[in-house]
Structure formats: C-alpha cells, structure tokens
Amino acid sequence: SNKKDLVSDGLVWPNGLTVDEILDRVYWSDAKKDTIESIHMDGSGRMVILDTVAKHPFSMAVFEDSLYWSDWEMQEIVSCNKFNGKDFKTLVKEAGIRPMGITLAHPLLIQSGPPSPCVDSPCSHVCLPKPLPSTEFTCACPSHLVLDSAGTACEDSSLTSTLLLSTSTHIYSLHPQTIGLTSHKAIGSIPSPGLLTSLAANSVDSMVYVVNRGAEQILAMDRETGSVNPVMYGDQFGAISYDPFSNNLFWVDVHKMSVVVHSLSSSANMVAVSSTSSPLSMVFVPEKNRLVVGENGKISIVQLGNPDVQEIVSYKLSSPGSLVYSAQADAVFIGDAASRAIYRWDWGTEEVVPVLENIGEVVSMAVKDGLLYWVEKSGTSLLWISIYNSELSWLPINSIASPNDLLHLSLSGQDASANNSVNMACITAHCSHLCFNEDTSGHTCSCPYGMSLSRDKMTCQEDCPDN
C-alpha cells in the first residue's frame, strides 16, 4: 500500500540498492550509466555521488561514512565516501575472484536479538560469534598472522613467509590479501646516506641483505630485531642473492662484469661467473642448487664448481633485469624491462615463453603462495597474477612508495612450497674459505684466486709464485 516512485527518470540498469537509515537516504548504482546516486526517502535531494568512476557497479552496501560495492568489470570490491565520492579505493582485487553480491556485518547493524558477544571484545583483528544460543566468541587472524597464547591478539608467525618491499630508504612487509587493516608494515630503514638498490631475503631465517648504494655497502638486517650491520664495502655491487644452505652471498660486480660469491662464514670471495657483458640479474635456487644469471639475450644456469654452464638463448630477452624461481611451477619467471614483458622458462626446457606482454617496466619480482608479484619502474602499485593463469590483480602502495623510489621485492621466512630435501652439507662443513653443496649430498670446498686446496681438501693455502 501507499506505493510511490522515488526515481522514475534517468535510470537504465539500477543494479545495486542500499538504504542508509541514519540519513534516511537511498543509494543505487546504475551499471549502464556507470554512476552511483542518492536520494532522500521522500524523493527530494537527488545527487550523483560518482560519475563514470565505477566501471560496472553491481551490489551495494552502506556503513558509517562509506559506500561499498562490487564491480563486475574490474572484478573488485571498492569503497568511497558516501557524501562526496572521495577517498575512492580498492579493497579486494585478486586473481580468480569475481565478487558479486556483498553485505556488511557489524554489531551496530544488528537490529534485533541478543547483544552480540563481539561487542567490546578483546580481539585485535576479527571476532567471530559462536552460533546461538551460545554467548561466546572466537578471535581470528588474517592468514599471515597467528593468535597469541591468550587467544585474543594476532601476531607475526615465524612459520609463514612474508613478502618484502624495499623503497629507496625503507623496507616493508606486504600483505596484499589483508582486508580491513593496513596491508603493510614498516620493518626497517637504513641510516643516511641511504639508497637501496637491491634486496635479498631467504626461506630459513629473518635475515635480509640489501645494497645501500648511498653508503656504498652491503648491509645485513634482521627483520625481527631491526638490527643492521655492514657486510662489505664498495661501489661495485649490483644485484644480490643469498643461499642460506651454504651461507654464501652472491653479488654482481658491475665494474668487472662478473658474479662474485662471498662466504658469510669466512668473508672469502671468489668469482663464480665471468662474462663479456654485465649480468643484469641473478637468483640462487636452493631447490636446484643452481645460480641463474640474466644477461642480454640469454639466461645462464650455473652449478658452482662446474665449468660447464647451460645457456638458454632467446631473442625475446632484451633486458632480463629480474629473475625469480617458483618451486610450485618448477619455472623461472623473467622480468624484462626493455621488452615490457614477463617471460617464463620451465626448468629443463630450451625455450622462453611469454606470460604477460605490453605491461610496464618490471624491476623486481617475487613468488608466494602460487602468486607472482612484481613492481614496475616509476610505479606505485603492487601487481600480481596466479602462476597458473594471467588474470591481473593489483594493490596501490602509494602511501609508502613514490614514483621516484627504487622498488624491490623478496620473500622472507618459511616457504611452504620449498623442497625440504635440499642438501645442507655446507652448514656443518669445515671449509676454511668457501663451501658449495653438491646436488644430493656432500660438499666441495673451494678457494679464492691465488690459493688452492691442501691435501685435506678443506684448507686453502697460498699458491707458490711462478718464479
């Protein structure tokens, strides 16, 4: 009874509809006009909140000062200020997820029934009421956190891997799938003068290694304690990578066009790869016990201590400036800034195939939980796809990164996809200078230039002069 039309003109596809009982207004989205509008319940005060910003709005909800809706075309959940359309931001956008209907759950929205057990709960992140008639609740955490011993506060877990992002001066942990709270956390910075140009973490402990071009040094940072200590000094450091199972740090010597291995146990150095062109990128793959090096037109697969180098030559590789290995895919992903593409080399094959083309200049990549993440030159977004398809997702990081920042990604902590059968013989070996693990078991001691192994095959001694 008493039916009346609030809006009868200027409508095409009014998909989403929600009522703000506080302001006594109706909000709706028009998927054909790409608009979001509002009107008083008495039919007055019609106004446009967003015009052509929302691509294909579908389902809507309103709470406090914000509007929320799902977008079919962009395949995301977004929000904005319900009064003026400002503070427009993407809340959920993830490969393989196409959000449709949405609803909001909050104690303030409960109209009837007993009080929610989550009102004034001590949960730091998420409170889940137990089914009625229970009056109890359970605290829960995002996937990268775990409950503390009290069962109320979420804290970092040493059993999960963490995606790291370095800007020119700071290092952050990123949690792209986190909803409702900030998706990043500052874990450290470098003292002035600072200019971070390379980042390498590992799957065993909390140590992170960075090249600080500003102070011409390589630093070791503990992301749990925040302590920072110098490892080496010089202006020759390019890309770096770390093997936790031999405690060797690899770095590109940009002056001598070579890759050098540095033992963090003995501080000894040795040239691992020499080239006629400067290596652009590299990554040590513990699961394969191989060093992969990217150069103009090829990638090289190196077994330390073995002079035979496998080369994968491809005209597609103009500037392979970023490499990352995925154990799940058993493949190396190659970011090529000059080609504006990401390529893939399946281990054991002879061909490089495209994954994504016509994108920005990829400067760094990382793989976590079946997702390939990357950042681009002058970009302020974290982008990712599934390693099994090419459906693109992204997260703005302009709150911590500017277009002038040098961005790098790495993975720190336990990686569930890593091969637990990796040979770790060098951890307990007694090599005096350098140690390299064999593929399945055992190790080989090695020596810097000008030295050779003594009869015990463990101790290096200086070579006699030729004269």
Give the gist of this structure.
The chain is mainly β and 467 residues long.
Q: Supply Rg.
A: 27 Å
Low-confidence stretches: none
Distance from first to last alpha carbon = 111 Å
- How much of the residues is beta strand, in percent? over 45%
Largest sheet: 4 strands, antiparallel
Arrangement of strands in the largest sheet: 1-2-3-4
- Helix amount: under 10%
The gross shape turns out to be elongated
Report on this model:
- The chain is mainly β and 467 residues long.
- It contains one helix and 40 strands.
- The model has no long low-confidence stretch (mean pLDDT 88).
Summarize the topology:
Layout: E1 14-20, E2 25-30, E3 35-40, E4 47-51, E5 57-63, E6 66-71, E7 76-81, E8 89-92, E9 126-129, E10 137-140, E11 145-147, E12 154-156, E13 162-166, E14 170-174, E15 184-189, E16 196-200, E17 207-212, E18 217-222, E19 228-233, E20 237-243, E21 248-253, E22 258-263, E23 269-274, E24 281-285, E25 290-295, E26 298-302, E27 309-313, E28 320-326, E29 331-336, E30 341-346, E31 353-357, E32 362-368, E33 371-376, E34 381-386, E35 393-396, E36 408-412, H1 425-428, E37 434-437, E38 443-446, E39 451-453, E40 460-462
